[in-house]
Amino acid sequence: MPPMSPAAIATQVAPLQTESGTFASTDIAGPGARTLAAWTRRDGRVWFFKATGPGSAVEKEKPNFVKFIQSVRF
């Protein structure tokens, strides 16, 4: 994927509510690859999770990725 500007990145970030708080999340697709990511700060640390792969495989697993993030407990 080509580099993105900080302004373009900001438009790609959405909140994902969980019982442990709010994660920032993104879904970015490029030629031949797609990445889902979610991250949050907790106790001075950043917790980061991602799924990367062929677009069709990532699309199929997106609901499971969201459920996984929602299952994270601190």
Brief synopsis:
This protein has 2 helices and 4 strands.
Topology pattern, helix = H, strand = E: HEEEEH
Task: Provide the low-confidence segments as ranges.
Answer: none
For the biggest sheet, the summary is:
4 strands, antiparallel
Q: Name the strands of the widest sheet in spatial order.
A: 1-2-3-4
Q: Helical region count?
A: 2
Mean pLDDT score, rounded?
Answer: 94
How would you describe the overall organization of this protein?
The chain is α+β, with helices and mostly antiparallel strands. The chain has one domain. 30% of the residues lie in helices and 47% in strands. The chain is built from two helices and four strands. It has helices at residues 6-10, 55-71, and strands spanning 13-18, 21-30, 33-42, 45-53. The protein has a four-stranded antiparallel β-sheet with strand order 1-2-3-4, with helices on one face. A hairpin with a 2-residue loop joins strand 2 and strand 3 (33-42). It is globular and about 35 Å long. The chain starts with 5 loop residues before the first helix and ends with a helix.
